[in-house]
Specification:
Chain lengths: ~600, ~55
Amino acid sequence: MTIANHPLPEAAFTELAEGGGSPAAMRRLGEAQRSKHMMLLHAIAEAATGSETGPVAFRAGYEQLARIQETAPGAAAWLLGLPHLGGWLHDTLIHLDQGTAADFGHFACLVAAAAIRAGLAVDLDVPVRDGRVRLPGLGSLLVTSERSWIRLGNDGERVTAGDEFAVEARWLAPDDGAGAPDEGTVAGWSGTPAIRATADGLTWTVLLEVDDPYLDRYTLPMRTAMSAGEVTDWRERVRSAWQIVAGRHRWAAEPMAEVISVIVPLTPQSDTDLVSATTPAAYGAIATSWPPDAVTLAETLVHEFQHVKLCGLLDMVPLACSGDQRVYAPWRQDPRPAGGLLQGIYAHLGIVRFWQAQQHAETDPDGLLRAQVLFARWRPALGQTVQTLLETGSLTPAGVRFAERLGARGQHLMSVPVPAEAARIAAEVALDHRLTWQLRHVATDAADVAALADACRRGESRPGEARTWVQEDVRKVDSGLRSRLLNLRYLEPGRYRTLCADGVLPVSAADRLLLERSSEAALQAYRTRIADSADPQPDAWIGLALALSQLPPSPSQQALVTRLVQLFEVHTRLASRTDPLDLASWFT
Amino acid sequence: MTSQEKDIETVIPDLRDIPVDRLAELGSSALAHSIALYRERLRENGIPLSSFQARI
């Protein structure tokens, strides 16, 4: 028997590179994921030997899956595409590679879930964890005895677990909130919350996974043990977001309904954090903390769905090589590797397209300003970061083609008009982010800085540039509050206005002047602070550059926004009350 | 054949029509090679996580 690799038509690759994805392209990605899962299952099957209960249960499940493939291919395809299976496969492989105990038996639960869902006969020993038998994608059975394994059977109509549970198979389904028989519950059964959302003739059914340990794999823990009220809130928020996605962002909605089958709610570290994530180990799942409003969730879904598509493509076609080089990404605080930058660009292509359309849907002025600024903020970042990515030299030939297509799509979006006020705010927050990142992560050659300082002291012309390189956390920059306020102006204009009116903003006088756009006064305040301080003032240097950028273009402004790190280091080296604008003039 | 009709070479073996209990018959084939490559990537890079954090 011989095999070929999955075909991927050039047209599907191009579609994906431009941020889209037709049903045919999504089908290609889905089929490849199922093959990937079969491939990893085979690797695990080769290791699942011996007479212990775990490997024995795995092998029984494996044989059962072969029978399901033969008799009910749809049920097998459901299982092989389940994000829960992907999570378990990856964890098991890692355990095998590290020589630690793998949870082989859980596979029997996965196969049992597929059989019960399809009304197929099954008879397997399955593990009991925390007093429950998990049936991934469906829910869990409560087991009252203290046994660690139980015989799970289904004759096609009735499911039994040992001698302590028996119920009609059709009731072992996710909980869609519509109510179950009689009093609304099946004793001992807890269905995974399901959300069915329909808008503009498009239906999306998605599970709210709050229990599966193999999908609790993100930077923040899964939000488990949700109350009925919380589940209801999530259902309503997802349905509201779906109205937006299906109604305004059809290009994303149609493939999303096809691919995304699970939302994993995350527990944020603070109420003001919105965290979302995806992993290539669980294709089809999106994780997010509780979103503050439906528009934010809609944007998060579009954003994370971009990652999911790219993860699927990367499994099929490697686009970037691993390497040590780290570069600037306008959406991150930390320097990023080429692969991470590619993911970020792709996600932001989706974000730009989202806000481009959302501008036409917003009716209140604050919502409109947010949409316009976010569109203007991320649109130029696409082309800039594609260029950075290409310059790393870390892309494969396919990766270069992919990035070039992405860049062309970004370039196309640059022709869309943006109101001047939105463009101004977007440019300012982009500059603040870039300069903050540079002061944090760009190191300079000490000898070069010394030579520049000496030349400046002697009144000579500037002898070239100091060499620089990216290095994580070179300096501490304490300008987070100012940056947050600059962003709050358009993210939550109402809250920003209230804070300003209350006069409670805990910022320096210079920062207050900058936020008020009293640009000349802010410039003088930052200038005095830098010149008078005995210690380096990186945040004041950024403020100085921002204040000067609010004024008409000048050579000093150009020097500050293009050579801020060198200016900062030379000024520190001069260790005297040097006027920062005089030094900026010397750098022109 | 135009460039849009061409297929791109991928690294995932097409197992759509093969039952799991017959995968072993493929022996030391392209399947074993693909598994080795995938596991090598997993060992080298772990499972990359795309995680986005915004202050709201």
